[in-house]
Amino acid sequence: MSRRALPSRRAIDNGSIPLASSLQQKSRSSPFLTIGLVLVVAFLVIGYTYTGSGYDSEKDALNRGEGISCTAEVQRAIPILKKVYGDSMQKVLHVGPETCSVVSMLLKEEETEAWGVEPYDLEDADSSCRNLVKKGIVRVADIKFPLPYRPKSFSVVIVSDSLDYLSPKYLNKTLPDLARVSADGLVIFAGYPGQQRAKVSELSKFGRPAKLRSYSWWIRYFIQTGLEENQSASKKFEQVANKRSYRPNCQVFHLNSHS
Ligand SMILES: *[C@@H]1O[C@H](CO)[C@@H](O)[C@H](O)[C@H]1NC(C)=O
Ligand SMILES: *[C@@H]1O[C@H](CO)[C@@H](O)[C@H](O)[C@H]1NC(C)=O
């Protein structure tokens, strides 16, 4: 389920058995070797704990049996996006399920205005979320239809999860519309193929099961529909992410706004 946590867990599971047995055999012959091996084991365990700690949001989601949420990933990526888009992160629109969580987080940042579009329903919204809706900061809107905003209303538009539930026919309308309302870029968070997504019981909310598309599918799709990748933003995102050892659990694409 967890794409990144699993291989490291496996590496330790495989590694710990031979290590433990060699520990027993060699403990008679060399105490130094034993200490060395104990240190190696401790190091592996600490390493695993450390790697695991970065995926709290994902683990929380998994514990709730919800699968991976790219909206949670947006929250983790906000500091990186701020580095990449700089001043352009002052007027942000987030589109995706549980947008209130992202909008609230962005509003806590200095000099940042944020709005949200919730593509599904807000049945179980808490009071702070209902407050955002009352103020008109968060709207519920079907993203299959043009968004109720003028061109270039926002500097950066970030969309998570929702595109995974749209067929190409609707993607053809929705993606250019998201690019239309942005001025300095459109950032897409999409699931990786093979990831566990929302439960079957939530399908009525999304209308259809998620279709998780591969990296090459998306790139081909962008080319077909004339959407251009923002190469410099993609490169910068990768650089900043590497520097901070941040590995997104979702695919992240940076597209140009329509000029
Ligand atoms: C989406 O748009 C592209 C490019 O305009 C077109 O080639 C493709 O057939 C469209 N797909 C659908 C399902 O309408
Ligand atoms: C490309 O990304 C940079 C941030 O790295 C941004 O400032 C610029 O406006 C983007 N270009 C377009 C055309 O969206």
TrEMBL record:
Record InterPro entries: CGR2/3, SAM-dependent_MTases_sf
Keywords: Membrane, Transmembrane, Transmembrane helix
TM region positions: 32-50
Keyword Transmembrane: yes
Biological-process GO terms, alphabetical: pectin metabolic process
Molecular function, one GO term: methyltransferase activity
Key word Membrane present: yes
Origin: domain of life: Eukaryota
Protein name as it appears in the record: Pectin methylesterase CGR3
Source organism phylogeny: Eukaryota, Viridiplantae, Streptophyta, Embryophyta, Tracheophyta
